[in-house]
Structures are given as structure tokens and as C-alpha cells.
């Protein structure tokens, strides 16, 4: 405790210095950035068959009050530098990505956005006030008290009027926009202006129910203020804000995250205000929220071993303890994406529209300011809460944290893969909107999925198969148009050259008929000469990991997998959602790399090896009436 | 009686008594004050928020009782330790205080905005800071090692290498397996290679290997390759206009470092430092 809080004091002091410098630089250099962006536009190459770009759509910096209190000092400009592959100093140590990202959205909390930084600013709005003395205090009791007040305010939706100052939030919002403008390099690196709307209404048992959404704007023209959960914690009111922004000429979408921590609310069959879902609700939700976050630092949201007992890969980075508590959330319904795809189809049968027809993306949700999603290059993600360089010994055994779960359980995950014509805001945003994107558990697995009625197994052997696939069918994220026969699929996955080989590609089908949904997993293509059994199960690939050394060999698995699959179980009367899941061979988890680096025993709280993966957005089939 | 009162010796005696009584009284007051520990409402509240901060939940009554007892214990031992002077000559206490001072004292003064001349001079004097990265342009042949032993794949690649060395060809993707990405790459930096091929031996070959000849086989994250480097642009100084922004940033960083160093030098001048260990015995 004492140690932790003294960390806050030091980093708090640094934050003041960092903040001042950054805002000065931003203002001074903005006009030059705009000029270089203009000149670059003309030279951008586009690929109609689309390139794969990787990025993070969910990241917090010292502008987020919680991150700031945890001792984060990095600002949005640092986030972009790190994503670009530059060296950044994190908690006193140099850090650098092995493989840079292609795009990034910094999404700080809109509640008190940038305010904590300004409260500490000796020349800011709070200069000389009692509040500044309290927030800048180096007394550990005062700091603890301040944090307690902040958390309470957000959970109960009672903003502190002295902090919730419009002029201060505008300043934070400006910093986000200026950093995005400064680092946008059309054709090379894309930035998005965004933020996080942090609704977390309390459940009857006192647990916070995560209904958070990241808001991503297409362009740089954005509303004067972000919409915060203090304005309303009901997503339907957030949609009104998004719709107004669109009317005013700023296209925008919202991405829900951590449905796994929503206590069953994220994909509930009634609205937050308790009304039954309607066709209008479904249409509106999909217009505003075409995607959902499949995985992130605080666990994956695909499915759980309880919901999918026949899925031997379901027990992957599962987290079900509600935020800021030790309460286990409700996960029997409304919390996982695979199940929600079925629920959505059941509602579609009744209402005529599917409220949960969403594609998937991935984000880190790190509160460090940097997307450190590389398993073998993970320095921690929540500043002084999990500073691996300093507190590795404690962190390997620590069982709780501010967030509830042990820091060792946090995932080095995840990022978004996008299939777009070029690396520009327009092309990437449009790809997100049409759901031609996927999530990975942190690595850069490139996965393609196409569906059509007339594909055949020979196509994948031809050099122009992607062109043929687009011409004769649809990619991930789209609706399979009406057709005859059985749906056919083409899938390709290319490994992350900095991670393990590939084990297999599966297609997972969620079907609904007469109000009843079922899920089935098909192994489509795999490495080696393994054979599927009568039930369609494929033997495990094996495990080459040397846990003590945190190494693995690549004499199992494949660099590339490409395959063709026909749904021979197809029922034209049933609604169906099809998505692909790619699995890597087992590799060490970050916690295993950490233990090996320091010659310490591995953590008993988490598995030593994991099978990293990618999840595509689905293709949907709707029976014709 | 009057006589006794006017006796100086007696007056001294009375004065002594008064002095003794008052000193004893004051000392006992301060002594007992330093032996009083008040657990105020605010103190308890801060213990609760501290607990909540760490664990995310409120303490139970029993836990709160424990927290208060732990606080009392810490306070008593802290005071006793201070009385014994344990804070003196303690390595950790010293370092913490020194760090705290350094953090508070650094970056105190704003650096004046640099003039164009200052920036130009800084750019000229620090060419290593403003040079472009080395890039390579190359073609490669891919040998897939999925489910095949590396020895066989390498032997196959070596056969192709021999054939190519005499052929004079600079591009021959058909001699290997189908590669799912490109066969030809232009102006790739080290970080591009690490992203596209992995942080593997191929990166070293491309940036250190001989140009204008076939090299390999070298390993990437995907398998084995033969590479032909047609051109390597060694890092060159970037034009001033293109890096102006970076020049300013680096200049300010350098100035800040200088300022902090000078501030310390200034401070250290107030001290006389005797390096006695250097004196001969």
C-alpha cells in the first residue's frame, strides 16, 4: 500500500511535467502536420482486393482519470509514437513494439476527460484551489481518498460538479483531436478521433455492469463535446448523440466491449429501461453499433466453457468477475457473443430484424497509453498496478487488484485486423462499418473468409482466388445473398511471423429455427496429417513449449492454411451465422515469459501456454420468406 | 521574614523551583502528546477508501477493525523508530528523499522558444539524430517448411542457390513454393522486415548481406528464403525542411537535459566536497 501510493506521488509529479510539454508541442506543430497530410493524399495506392491492416481501437492515456490516478503519464501523442514503432519511455523504461501497428484510436474515458491532468496543472483552471491541493497532494491518505471519491462518482452516476467542468473537458477533447491530426499519415498510418462512453450501472447485488462503448469518428469534424455516462448511462441516448453527429456530417460508430463483464446486460432481450426489444430498436442498434469487441485485456467475450461444453478451445482467457468488485457476474445469457448471435436470430424470427447482427473487432483497453499486445514483449498494462519491470515477483503471485481480478489474469490482447483498399481513415472506417474486419488475441494472424453458392475446392489453388472469391460471393461481415444449393466457404489464414505456426481453421455455425438456436464447430483445414474422428473432432496439435525457458519450436503447425468447406448440414429454413476461428500452436503466455526471464516459478493462477487465435466477423444467411 | 525574602540566595532558590516545575510540566505535556494517537473520523474514512482502492470492495467491520489496529501498530512503531533515529543513515529513506527532491526540482524553468538559427545549428551538429533509416529493395524465393524437416528444405534451397549463382537471374520466385504475400519488396526498413517476415535471421541478412548476389537460405517466420538484394540505401541525412519538427523536439529535449544538469551543478557549488579517500595515508 505504502509503496503503491508513493508510486502515485512520483508519477503524479511526472504527469504534470509531461502534460505541459505535450500540449505545447501539439499546438505548435499542428499546422505542419496538416500540410504533410495533404501532400501525401495524391500518392496513396489502393488495392481493390484489399490489404490487411492491424490496429487497436481501444486505448487509454493519462487523459483518462482512472489511468492518471494509477500513475499513467503517457499522453495520446506517445500512444501514436509507440504504435508507429518508435521507442517510448514507460514507467522509466524504454519500450518498443516488435511489429508496429497500421492504425490506432486513442479512446480515453469521456467522464472527466483530461480533467485530472488539468487539476494538477499549476497554471490551470484549478490553480490555487483546495481541490488542486487535494489532487496534487503527496500525502498517501489524501490520494486514496481522492481515488475513492472518483470511483464512487462514476459508479453512481453522480459527477462532482467541481470536476465536471465543460471548459476542462473541451481541453482534454482538443488534445485527443490534435494528436490524431498530427499523427495521421494517409496511406501509411491511420489515426481516429475517439473516446469511451463509460456506462456502468450498479446491479442489485452492488456489482457494476459494464455497458461501455468506444466511440470512433470517421473524420476530424466532431461534436464540441463527447457524450458521457454522466449525460446518460442508457445506450439509446448515446445513439441519439451519434445520430445527431451523423446529421451534422460526422460519420461515427460505437463499439460495445466486455460483454463478459456486463452481468448479462450487453445482449439482453430487453432494453436498459426494461422495455421489450422492437424492430426499431434492432435497426437502430445495428446502424450505430455494427461491431462488438470480441476480446481485450480483461478477457474474451466469444463464449465460455459453460455455454459451449463441446468446444475444447472455449476455456481461453475467461474473466467473469465484475469490475471493481469480487462479484461473479451473470453469464448464462446476454454476456457472450456466440450465444448473442443465436439470440439475435431468435429475435429476428419474432421481430423481423436482428439486434445482434454484429461483426467483431479487438482492442487492448490498456490504461498505460501503449498497445503492448505482443505476448513476448508485454511490460504490463495498468501503470503502477502491474509494473512488470519493477514488481514482477509480487505480480506472479498477487491474487487481487483495483480491477478485481489478479493482474496476472490480464491478457496481452487484443487487436483488430481490417481488410481495406488502403490505409486511410475513409477506407478503414468503411471496412469497420461493413464488418470486413476481425479480432485477434494480440498477434497479426491474417485471416480471410468468403461465402458463396458456387465456389469449389480447386479455387484456392489458383493465384487469383481472392479476385474470384469477391466476384462469386461475399467476404466476412456480409449477408449471403439468396441462392440455391448449399453455402460454400473459402478460408485462408497466414501466421503472424513473430508468433507460432497455425494449428487449424474452424468454421463455427450458429443456427436458429422456431425459436431454438444450436451451435456447431467444423474443422475445415489443419496442419499435418491428423484425421478427424466420427464426431468431427480433430486431435490436438501437440505442445512444444519448454515452460522453464519459455521457448517453443515450429516443427509442428503451418505457416499458411487455406481451405474450402461446404455446409452439408445446411437447412434453408434456418437462420445461420457462420464465422471462422483460427488457432495457433501452443506458445508461452506472457506470464510464462516473465517467470522464465527472472528464473521464478510460473503463476499458478493462469495457464502456462495458450493457443493464440483470430476470430472473423461472420457471414449471415437469412431464409427467404 | 522580610529579611529572608530579600535574601538573594532565597530568591535564586524560588526561581529555581519555578523553573524546575515549569520545565517538568512542559516536558510531560509534550511527552504525553507524542504518546497520544487520535483515530479521527477522517482517518477511518481514509483507511476505508485506501482499502477500497486496493481491493475494489468495502472492508467488513472485522476487516476495518484490523485496519485500524494495523494503523495504530504502524503509528506506534513509526514514532518509536523516529525516536531512536532509525530514519537517519537508512539507505532506502535516503534514496526516497533524494528521488522526491529530484522529481520536484527537474524541469522547473520553461525553455525559451528556439530561433531558426539555433535549430539549424542543432541540426548540423547532430546529424545522427536526423538521418533516414537504412532500407532494402529485394526479391526472394520462398521454401515452405510446413510439416517438412528443415534439413530437407534447406538442401532444396541450396540446390536452387547453386543453379541461380551461375544464371545471372535477379528474380526467380517460380523456383520455390507459392508465397502468400509478395515476392518483391521495395525500400523496406528494418521494422518493416520485422513486421512482414518476423524478428528472425532474414532481417540480419537483408541489412548486412552482400548486395547484387543470391544469399541464403535464411529463415523467416514463415520458412526459408533465398534473397537477392538489388539495392540498399544506407542512412542519409534528411533535408532540414522534412525534419524541422523533430529538430525542435530534440532541441527542447537536449536543452531541458542541459538545464537540469546546470541546476544540479549550481546546487553542488554550495557544497564543499572532500574526496578524502584519494588522500594518501
From TrEMBL, chain A:
Keywords: Signal. Residues 1-17 form the signal peptide. InterPro entries: DUF3604, Pol/histidinol_Pase-like. Pfam families: DUF3604. This is DUF3604 domain-containing protein. It comes from Flavihumibacter petaseus NBRC 106054.
TrEMBL record, chain B:
InterPro entries: PPIase_dom_sf, PPIase_PpiC, PrsA_foldase, Trigger_fact/SurA_dom_sf. SUPFAM superfamilies: FKBP-like, Triger factor/SurA peptide-binding domain-like. GO terms for molecular function: peptidyl-prolyl cis-trans isomerase activity. The chain crosses the membrane at residues 9-26. It is an enzyme of class 5 (isomerase). It catalyses: [protein]-peptidylproline (omega=180) = [protein]-peptidylproline (omega=0). Its EC number is 5.2.1.8. It holds the Pfam family Rotamase_2. Residues 133-231 form the PpiC domain. Gene3D superfamilies: 3.10.50.40, Porin chaperone SurA, peptide-binding domain. PROSITE patterns: PPIC_PPIASE_2. Keywords: Isomerase, Membrane, Rotamase, Signal, Transmembrane, Transmembrane helix. This is peptidylprolyl isomerase. It comes from Flavihumibacter petaseus NBRC 106054.
